[in-house]
Amino acid sequence: MSHAPLPRPQLLQITWPIYSEQLLHLLVGVFGVWLVSRLSDDAAAAYGLSNQIMLTFMITFRFVSVGASVVVTQYIGAGDRDGAEQVARASLGANAWMGIASCVIIALGASSLLSLMNTPASLLPTAKPYLIAVGVMLAFDAVNFSMGAVLRAHTYTRDTLRLIVVMYVIQLALSLPLMFGFAGWGGLGMNGLAVAAVIGRACSFFMHRRLWIERLGIRASFEDYWRIRPGRLREMLHIGLPGAGENVVYRVCFMIILAMIADMGPAALATHTYTMQIVHFLLLFALAIGFGTEIVVGHRVGAGEFHGADRQVRGGLLIGFCVCVTTVVATALVGPRLLGLFTRDPEVIATGSTLLWLNLLVEPGRTLNLVVINGLRATGDARFPVGFGVFSMFAVAVGLSWLLGVHLGWGLAGVWVAYGADEWVRGLAMAARWHYRGWVPHARRTLRRVRLRQPRPA
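Structure tokens predicted for Multidrug transporter MatE (458 residues):
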């Protein structure tokens, strides 16, 4: 049975909790690096390599969670709460299986995965047990991704933020005693951090379940965690596969460019690493405004309010540009001081400062790209962004990085110009797609689907 549509969500009201959540993830990650560095440099290196493997697995969870988020917003916008609930339940089963499969692959193939990363033999005794221990976390993360995406799609972004805060408080409170010991016990070293992370994710799972019951009225059954619902899964993967596939391609291109930078020498690699730590903070708002736009536009499209969807994307761009330019300029002005937190090398600080100013070329393009792509995805227009994105990332980002940075000898400045060119080429293509209403036929098909599809038994 369908219900009346919920009040239309407001962009900024749902964006700031998403931004805070992203910032918290980043800060906890930085703190984790600092904690393991207290053990040894080898531990920090093993931690970094293991986390790269973990991040690769986590991308696969986005196939379902991204699609679930968008499809749920469309059903809510249409006033079909039952359809939204069925999609939510279907996302649990799909991601639960992927989480379990990830755990098994890591448990059985940790050595092979670390070898693929060219892990030095001296790090294997530290990295392997940590990777296996933290791999258990993926089973919880997979389901938590789906539950969190569904809550955000219902605009409960403040609740998900509170949940993440509690999860990290538990994790960090346990990390210190489990890693370094207490009351005469020596602790587990880096494996203590893994155990704390698993416990934190387990607590997060139970908190998500509670929120589903209290906020959504959905009490997930045991069957929901193992049953695959092909019809609903197809709906989610229509959106989620292209969206997550774009992230995979971006990651591959980034690794190729990173290999080019490594050939420029240790100073260039260090400069890139330190500058990117700062850049990660700068792009958080663009990510948040993009996710917020996706949620709001999905609601509008499900309700048949195409003009409202158009206004939301344009409004999101205006907000995004204003915040982006302000933060980039402010960061560039204090760039030498920020880089001085990482290194005392004057060459690294000077080059990094130049890159932070060049970021004025990169970040507005990235904001344009993220906001419009998320808007397109929310309408159901998911394939064009990834198709054009694959071309641009390889031809512009990778190609120009080689041409300018390596062949012409511009070094990191050439790489940054290539980053900016790629973001602007993709962003302008997406903006043209939106401006000339190439998304409208997809939005109409989406509207027909959510209005005509009869609710199915769970």
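The chain has a mean pLDDT of 89.
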